[in-house]
Amino acid sequence: MDGNLNALTTVFTEFYYWVTVVFMFLIHVGFCMYEVGASRHRNHMHTLMKNIMIIPLVTVTFFFFGWWIYWAFPSFPFFGGLNYEAGAANLPWSQNMATNLSDRITGVFWAAFLLFSWTAASIVSGAVIERIRSSALWVHAVMIGSVFWIIDAAWGWHAEGWMVKYLGYHDAYASGVIHAIAGGYALGVIMVLGPRLGKFAADGTPRDIPPHNPWMLTIGIFLIYSGFWGFYAACNIPVISPEGIGGMLTGDTWTATNIYLAPTSLSAITFNFLMSLSGGLMAAYVVSKGDAFWTFSGGLAGIITASAGNDLYHPIQAMLVGAVGVVVVYKLHYWVERTFKLDDAVGAVAVHGYSGVVGLIIAGFLLWGAPSSPYEGFATVNPVGQVVGAVIMFGVLGWLPGFVIAKMQAAAGVLRIPVEVELQGLDYAEHHAYEDAKAEIIAADKAALNGGGVPAE
Amino acid sequence: MSTIGYDSWAVDLAEVGAVYPFQGSEGLMVVLGVVFWIAWHRIQFVREGQHLEKAKQMGDTEKIHNLLEKY
Hints:
The complex is a heterodimer.
Chain A: H1 4-38, H2 44-52, H3 54-72, H4 84-88, H5 106-127, H6 134-156, H7 162-167, H8 175-193, H9 214-234, E1 237-240, E2 255-257, E3 263-264, H10 266-287, H11 292-307, H12 315-340, H13 348-366, H14 383-411, H15 419-424, H16 428-449
Antiparallel strand pairs in A: 1-2, 2-3
Chain B: H1 26-56, H2 61-69
């Protein structure tokens, strides 16, 4: 750090990312609560463990190779190849990736991206509850969390990403790069995995499998909202000088920027986050005729739909974009469920995937002609770039690998739990041992009370 | 002799970089870390397969009925 101003900027940035990461942790807490609330009693511990173990597995693999992908892949494959120089500083054996007083930023910036990786994996986790093998889900978690989502981040969420440069792809707060890809991936997996037993009647009519605990589910979604707010802040570079952006901004005014180094402010994204949340909640309440869970999920879908352009929208635009997205998503979810007999247990494909796609396409029209980047020569935002981007995010990097890997797991017989176990519940083995032990203690105490034995101590 | 390369903090911080033990052995540490990660998947995968096979035979109808009633 050369000079006090640079030192202050560095320490502020270090602290800023640390704070956003802690807020983002709430997303994972929320996902855990939501999934457990949605699953039935006999699958609680399995559902919880499935989601908790995403944390260490995605973390270590993101350390080993995920972070390197982000820095090495922005121009890959056809626009300059791998960037070995940028990648080298972020390899797991680099001294930047460790306790190092000359680099205070890499760890906290790495962590902000890592929390996005957990989120991508957790979105998939919700769609597959009560019937997937943990071992299968954890491979998917590594693949989406430390490989596919970070490739899409390098391509479409990096200041030098080829999609930004040549397509004018604009996705400032991750409609596509987290949500469309995770929704698409989840769709690919559930197409192979199949529905939960009982989800469809013999004539194919879908049944609602209600959550066992609506309260837990509600608190879960509120925690996701809270973490998502922190996620928005984590998508910004907090303070940077024009020189720090290669002199592409004129004058000498420092600014916060989005991930593409284009100017924005926490004020702008706070307006738009809350207005898109509100638009989503209101539209979902109307379209679902007051269904509580769809209303809550609609708030999330509203934010996700507006996220691609929430650095630039007017708050009322953000509200309306959020509302439009929710209507499309709600209708599409039930159409897909009825038509293709797919069981998306928590609506993850709809809320994250369809919202992300719709949000990208809307941004292409609303922001048509806006610079996506401060760098000269980059394409401006346009509908074609956004549609192509949506196809890449949802289809190429999301649905396709999810489907192919799940097919391989299914062929090897390691994707889905046995029918007998699904019926008795994944927690049965532990649960009945617990119940037996409890019954034995109660029986012993009752016997003692009646003077016929030794009390349990 | 210090494992972190510094015997004293009476140094110019501008000159200080990495401060973790055994600098120079990062490659070996990565290999150990990757082996740990892959081995974990292998152990978990095998144990889960055995557990599910056992669980398939476990069902006591009455107990399962009680469990289903709890939703």
